[in-house]
Amino acid sequence: MKTMNNISIMTERAAKWLLPLCMLAFLPLTAPAQIVVDDNDAEVDEDEIIVLDQSGEEEVIEFPEAMTYDLDSLLNLYMSKTYLDEPTDCNMRNVNPTYSKEEYVDRLSRMPTVMEMAYNDVVQKFIDRYSGRLRHSISYMLGASNFYMPIFEEALETYQIPLELKYLPIIESALNPQAVSRVGATGLWQFMLATGKQYGLQVNSLVDERRDPVKASYAAARYLSDLYKIFGDWNLVIAAYNCGPANITKAIHRAQAATKDSTMNVKDYWHIYPYLPRETRGYVPAFIAANYMMTYYSQHNICPMTTRLPAASDTVMVSRNVHLEQVAQVMGINIDLLRSLNPMYRRDIVPGLSEPSPIRLPQADVARFIDLEDSIYNYRASDLLTKRMEVSVRDDAPTYYKKSKRTVRKRSTVTRRRSSTARKRTTTARRKTTTTRKSTARKRTTRRRR
Length: 450
What we know:
Blueprint: H1 7-10, E1 36-37, E2 48-52, E3 58-62, H2 71-75, H3 78-83, E4 84-85, H4 101-110, H5 121-131, H6 135-158, H7 168-173, H8 193-198, H9 213-231, H10 234-243, H11 245-258, H12 269-272, H13 278-281, H14 283-296, E5 306-307, E6 313-318, E7 321-323, H15 324-331, H16 335-341, E8 349-351, E9 357-362, H17 366-371, H18 373-378, H19 381-384, H20 405-449
Antiparallel strand pairs: 1-2, 2-3, 4-5, 6-9, 7-8
């Protein structure tokens, strides 16, 4: 197992594809194998589905959060506007052929995957949704996959993870390195803060390496490898990736307690389905259908968006703090391009003063950066890098204090009252002591007389 320090070496070949692209993921329907989904119900919320079980009772299942992202807003992002175009030479783009169940079963079985890609009614509902209402999203996905898939494949191959898992970030983040879920999971692979740090990803006020495509991909490959050592089943691994290994373990124990057959293997996603969180119930079916569509899209007359791959990129190391605006202005590079190439810098500041830090640039501009380095550092440094290294204290004037007379009087009054109360208590105590002594003396005198 390689360490995170070797990532830059291992990913040199993938670096030229490293131009982040935000895109829409699939919007799936989810249900267990025995559940019938009403796919024609127009009243169903886009963020969830309602399923009917065999007894006719309704159940609401959540979509994975990233699958609800708005397509129009993602199409307006820099990379998609710059490098993706609508296909103009596609015939029958809105005609979706239908096939028999046997055809779908045969296609899934012929896919070159290690993971089990089983067919059932639930997976069919996903395929129908992807090839129908979401066919334009699939076209977008196919066109944009060229940017990230080489990075994902190399990281997964390094840790001997099945390459079909390269489609996991599509469901997790819609391939948006800046994506942040409602619970704080961040980046392409949607790492939580604690998990990201556990797998070597640095997170502070200026840097969030969960957003770095290369480092996050290698961290995710390590995490998936560790999950497989626990569960030994890839469907359970990706379910655990979604909801956490603790939830999968609890679901397995509950399924084991509910079954009367001690020989039954309960370590199966479809068997523990009723005990999983609502979002996780749709996770594996969505993943299977995504692999199907990315393989057999042409069978459904879906044309990929035209992709114009960007130029290769490379990195330079800096040992001083640099603002991306300084680089953009001095070198004449689009600031949005720089942000896309360096999504890990949360506030456009590269903290090279803390430790040598990389700046990713188009490969043709690397030499020019080296030539203009001093000019870049000096450009509006005081305006863009406002954190001062030294601050002088003004000591040319006497320190001024303003005392409140009202406050002083109040304190004096309170002090006098406390002193008076204390004197009264002391006097009372003395009187009681004197009275007690006199009474005792009278009693003794009376006894002697007797």
